[in-house]
Amino acid sequence: MTGETGISVIPVNDAPQVNTPGTQFAVEDQDHKITGLTVEDVDYDQGAFVLDPNLTMRVTVSVIQGKLTLADTTGLTFPDDIDGNGVGGDDPALPYTQITMTGSPADLNRALDMMNYRGNLNFNGTDNLTVLVNDLGNTQTDVAGNPTGTPLTDRAVVPIVVSAVNDAPSVDVSAVANTTVDEDSDLLLPGIKVNDVDAELGVVTLTVTLQATHGTIRINPGIGGGVISTKIVGNETKVVTVTGTTAQINTTFAASDGVTYRGTQDYNGPDAVIVSVNDNGNIGTGGAKQTGTPGNPPNGTIAITVEAVNDWPEIQAPVGTQLFDENIPGAIPLIIDDVDASEPGGGPITVTLTVTHGTLHVRGDVPGGLDPLTDPNAIWNNDSQSVTLSGSPEDITTTLTNTTGLIYSPGLNFNGDDDLVVFVN
Q: Which of 60, 376, 386, 417 is most buried, judged by most C-beta within 10 A?
């Protein structure tokens, strides 16, 4: 005798599972695609979701030292506050430190496969990707097919090792970015700052170059804790290099007299000190990095205005006493110079020649010299004890250095000492 008995197996909710790909190896400041990360639930394989094709699971992924971007958001739903920071309006296409999403296993796995990780700027070391999956209790039902299960979860952590790359150094000249100085005077430039984020990982030796166009730069090697003299090359020239740790260089640069600029003698107008930094490739991969090169921070540019000052004119006269025979005229060559005369706004100078016991004659026909025919003010009171000249230093000097440009005639029958007094205005 045989019989049949019906048996109904009530499903229970099985826990979901996170499948991890193992430790990930990323590079500082670069994107890294994570492959092989999936979630699953055996209840799906048993056809439990045939009860309702809208039944889903919830996944939260998070990192500490970077951000994540999903590969595909098709079929997923997201809370208004995707990253859980208390502020809504989030866009699922953007990168976040934490992302919460809901969907079917297939949709979730499309989002997780090739999910992008990028560490925070300049971060290197070990980060952790935490994956939490919640099946929402969907797969346990009563005899009528209604979900009655208690939500079950699984959690996994994927280490992400971020290797260091050599970060470019930087320079800040904002404390002295625009400044003025009088011609032929020192300009102190305290407050230049250099930095290299790699210094947090170990000792970094930087090489800083300071370069001027119309002046020289002096680095003070005597600042306590600063750069020593053997690490300064080209001091008091147009191009100076300084080598030391970030702390040593900044200590020197912070001192009131650590860096001094001085314009070239008699120069006035615009100039600039360009500050560049080379990190010598101390830490991380990628070789040496330098400011001012493509892809790296700019050089520091200190704009300097050298303001003109009135320079003293110069007179070059023959050395020693000039000897003349009584009643015999003779030449006295003179050189007159004023650097300001050739500069913008410069004009003619006035030279007064005076003797006591004779007369002076200045030629007005020396080629390239003073010409009273074109400038009636060029020579005044000629052939007298006091003659005044007006013109450029070049024209006056051309006349006075000619072998017969300036003639002194002693007074009749005079003998003894006389003085030629030259006054330049």
A: 60
Residue 289: the pLDDT is: 80
In eight-state DSSP terms, residue 122 is: T
E-only strand ranges, 286-382: 300-307, 314-316, 330-331, 335-337, 349-354, 358-362, 379-380
- pLDDT exceeds cutoff 60 at 51: no
DSSP secondary structure letter of residue 285: B
Q: Sorting pLDDT into bands at 50, 70 and 90, what band is 247?
A: very high
Residue 50 pLDDT level (bands cut at 50, 70, 90)? very low
Return the CA Rg of the chain: 43
Report how far residue 369's alpha carbon sits from residue 351's, in angstroms, rounded to the nearest whole number. Answer: 14
Closest CA to 293 of 311, 314, 274, 277: 277
Confidence of residue 415 (pLDDT cuts 50, 70, 90): confident
Among 66, 59, 64, 79, which Cα is nearest to 156's? 59
∠207-262-176 over CA atoms, to 5°? 65
CA gap 411, 405 in Å, rounded: 19
Contact 144, 117 (CB under 8 A): no
Share of the chain above pLDDT 70, in %: 90
What is the pairing mode between strands 259-263 and 186-188?
A: antiparallel
What distance in Å separates the CA atoms of residue 229 and residue 241, rounded to the nearest whole number?
11
385 pLDDT above the threshold of 50 = yes
Q: State residue 25's pLDDT score.
A: 96
| Residue partners of 276: CB distance under 8 A and separation at least 6 | 171, 208, 209, 211, 290, 291, 292, 299, 300
pTM, full prediction: 0.64
Higher pLDDT, 365 or 308: 365
How far is Cα 314 from Cα 141, in angstroms, rounded to an integer?
A: 109
SS3 of residue 208 by DSSP: strand
The Cα–Cα gap between 42 and 37 comes to 17
For the record, the structure tokens of 208 come out as 């800083």
Name every residue whose Cβ is closer than 8 Å to that of residue 337 and which is 6 or more positions away in sequence. Answer: 313, 314, 315, 316, 393, 397
Find the mean pLDDT for residues 182-204.
Answer: 88
AA identity, residue 304: I
Closest alpha carbon to 277 in 383, 167, 184, 409: 167
